[in-house]
Specification:
The structure holds 2 protein chains of 2 kinds.
Chain A lengths: L2 H14 L5 E3 L4 H12 L18 E3 L3 H4 L4 H7 L1 H6 L2 H15 L6
Parallel strand pairs in A: 1-2
Helix pairs in contact in A: 2-6
Chain B lengths: L2 E13 L1 H7 L1 H9 L3 H6 L7 H6 L1 H7 L4 H5 L24 E2 L1 H10 L6 E4 H12 L6 H7 L5 E2 L1 H10 L3 E5 L2 E6 L11 H25 L8 E4 L16 H8 L6 E4 L6 H15 L5 E5 L10 H6 L8 E11 L6 E9 L8 H15 L9 E3 L5 H4 L7 H15 L8 H8 L18 H9 L5 E8 L11 E8 L12 H19 L1
Parallel strand pairs in B: 1-2, 3-4, 7-8, 7-9, 12-13
Antiparallel strand pairs in B: 1-10, 1-11, 3-6, 5-6, 9-10, 11-14, 13-14
Helix pairs in contact in B: 1-2, 7-8, 7-9, 7-11, 8-9, 11-12, 15-17, 17-18
The chains are: A mainly alpha, B alpha/beta.
């Protein structure tokens, strides 16, 4: 996760605590897992503002059924359905869940 | 006229591992942060030799050493399945892969302001090597050994140690330096000037190969549009330009003028549309669309390559040039009536972008997805991007196009994989920003059209505008290349026709008077 985004998440996390939910749109499971780790346990690359900072935020991939259920079906169809065919929603959801189960507090499920 | 002819194209690479490992954006940033010594110490062990780069199939595909179709059939990973010696030549059908020492010499030849100093014996040696290059002119060779650009090593050391210059390396030794252009102007630091001069030099090389490939006299070139991602200017006009004219000057195109077009990775496609419109309207007789390459992009993903024990393959400055002329029915054409346009209001979702660049223009032209034999969206080499977590970009793009084709009921969902295989393109371009974005395939597409293997290809460019912190909008543009159709003979009467008609009439009158 780039340094600017880490800073934005850090600012929001410090302001709202674990009421702040992070929704990822990463197209790659490995990347999604690293991003999820960054916003929960801290930046594993020790390069950004979240190095050594455990925000423990609840984190989900946008393809997670919990998030999908919250979305307007028409907007989903218009903006996301194509990518559902292109990417691997199950793998992405599972990669983020793995980190969420270990490090997130206040998860919705 | 809504079509223009694609007369010729060139694609070149400049191998630059030592320059890149010092001044590529990622290593340079790591050096200055002072926090990543482990990575910096390890990087030199992950560099690819020039000989290895010559044997690496994606590089040969880019310069036309092997055909795109041959490349498609090669065994992967390419890095472990190098090409045989007979296919690993410096020169290909489209251009060349120039070694780093000669590139430094070419950069020096492109310097007008005594910004590049090369050590005397090094300059003399590389000038001799450059003289062997079939496209390098005598004038350029002479510029490498101008006394003002050649200095003793002791003077060079003083320049980079005491006057904010930057050393240039070859063979692990300092062989020259780039000087600072101004004591305080951040737009004229040695690092910025190195980037711009390398962009100019690589653009010159592409233009020279274009002139050779097209058989055009440099004096006949009318206009140049340059579309790299570099910004040349000083503090008062940070990216004022003009790379196009600077490149045309060194290439000997004294009757040409030029301007720069920018748009991140969408720049080249926008430049092609701009150039084609000017040629089609008759505003210009012909236009060379040219882009040099980027030093900051070298080793951009090398942190991950080093971490994973892989070769760091991002070691080539990439350039290209395309010559557009009026359509005469004999060469592949670029259509101007079917253009993909990503509007401000379209939104940045991949679905919206893909639709704007593929479905909408095709629908307007009465075509469907299957009518396009090959889509060339973004052609990054996945052996570079995948280890860095950026995935296989060309594959992701063609998957998006296929998924959209399913949504628009142009193909059935079970046919998606076949569509991807038949209509997609495999990436072979360096991660040079503007270069991967569709334009490397203009050459192969024209070759395949000329050989009757395909009828139509779509070239797509997409730009990450957010990087400039001006807007969060996405960007993109696309156009079609097609096989030529016979052009109806013009009904206009030439001067010679009129002369013949008058002579005929006079002859008739004379006959009657006799």
């Amino acid at each position: 996760m780039d340094l600017q985004n880490q800073q934005r998440v850090k600012d929001a996390g410090e302001k709202y605590g674990t009421d702040c939910v992070v929704i990822l749109g990463s197209s790659d499971a490995e990347g999604a897992e690293i991003y999820a780790e960054t916003v929960t346990a801290g930046d594993p690359t020790y390069a950004g503002p979240l190095a050594g900072v455990s925000l423990e935020l609840p984190v989900y991939h946008v393809f997670d059924p919990i998030i999908r259920a919250e979305c307007d079906p028409a907007a989903w169809e218009e903006q996301i359905s194509m990518m559902e065919m292109v990417l691997d929603p199950e793998a992405l959801t599972a990669a983020v869940k793995g980190m969420r189960d270990q490090y997130s507090k206040n998860a919705i499920e | 006229m809504s079509k223009v002819g694609i007369k010729s194209y060139s694609y070149c690479l400049n191998h630059a591992p030592e320059t890149g490992s010092h001044y590529g954006g990622t290593p340079y940033e790591a050096f200055h942060s002072g926090k990543e010594q482990e990575y910096l110490d390890a990087l030199p062990k992950h560099l690819q030799s020039y000989d290895h780069a010559l044997h690496y199939a994606p590089n040969q595909t880019y310069i036309g050493g092997i055909s795109y179709e041959e490349f498609e059939g090669l065994k992967t990973p390419w890095v472990d399945n190098l090409l045989p010696d007979e296919k690993a030549k410096r020169y290909g059908k489209f251009g060349e892969l120039m070694p780093e020492d000669e590139f430094l010499g070419l950069i020096s030849a492109c310097d007008e302001f005594e910004l590049v100093w090369l050590e005397k014996s090094f300059a003399e040696e590389v000038s001799k090597k450059l003289a062997e290059d079939p496209v390098i002119t005598e004038a350029i060779v002479k510029r490498v050994v101008r006394p003002k650009n050649m200095h003793e090593l002791s003077e060079i050391e003083t320049e980079y140690k005491e006057r904010a210059g930057l050393p240039l390396y070859f063979g692990g030794k300092v062989v020259g330096c780039i000087r600072s252009g101004h004591p305080t102007d951040q737009c004229l630091t040695a690092h910025v000037l190195m980037e711009n001069l390398a962009g100019k030099a690589s653009g010159v090389l592409a233009l020279l190969h274009l002139l050779k490939n097209s058989g055009m006299n440099p004096l006949d070139l009318d206009f140049v549009i340059e579309c790299s991602e570099e910004g040349a200017g000083d503090v008062g006009q940070r990216a004022g330009g003009n790379f196009a004219k600077a490149i045309a000057e060194v290439a000997g195109c004294t009757n040409a003028s030029g301007c720069d077009v920018r748009g991140f990775c969408a720049g080249p496609v926008n430049a092609m549309i701009n150039a084609a419109a000017q040629v089609a309207s008759g505003a210009r007789k012909n236009i060379a669309v040219v882009a040099g390459g980027s030093i900051p992009k070298l080793y951009m993903n090398s942190r991950d390559h080093v971490k994973k024990g892989l070769l760091a393959l991002e070691d080539c400055v990439g350039s290209f040039a395309v010559l557009l002329v009026p359509d005469d029915g004999t060469m592949p054409v670029m259509r101007l009536d079917v253009l993909g346009k990503h509007t401000v209001g379209a939104g940045g979702a991949p679905q919206a972008v893909t639709s704007a660049l593929t479905f909408e223009p095709l629908q307007k032209a009465g075509l469907t997805f299957a009518d396009v034999d090959r889509f060339a969206p973004e052609l990054q080499n996945h052996e570079i991007t995948e280890p860095a977590g950026a995935g296989n970009v060309p594959l992701a793009n063609i998957k998006m196009i296929a998924a959209l084709a399913v949504m628009k009921k142009a193909i059935e969902k079970p046919a998606m994989m076949d569509f991807i295989k038949q209509h997609g393109t495999i990436g072979y371009a360096h991660t040079q920003g503007h270069i991967p974005a569709g334009v490397p395939f203009i050459g192969p597409a024209c070759e395949m059209i000329n050989e009757g293997k395909i009828k139509r290809a779509m070239i797509i460019g997409k730009g990450s505008l957010f990087l400039a912190r001006l807007t969060n909008l996405a960007d993109g543009a696309s156009f079609l290349i097609e096989k030529p159709e016979p052009v109806a003979p013009t009904s206009a009467v030439s001067k010679d026709d009129i002369k013949a008609m008058i002579l005929e009439a006079l002859g008739e009158i004379a006959g009657k008077l006799a």
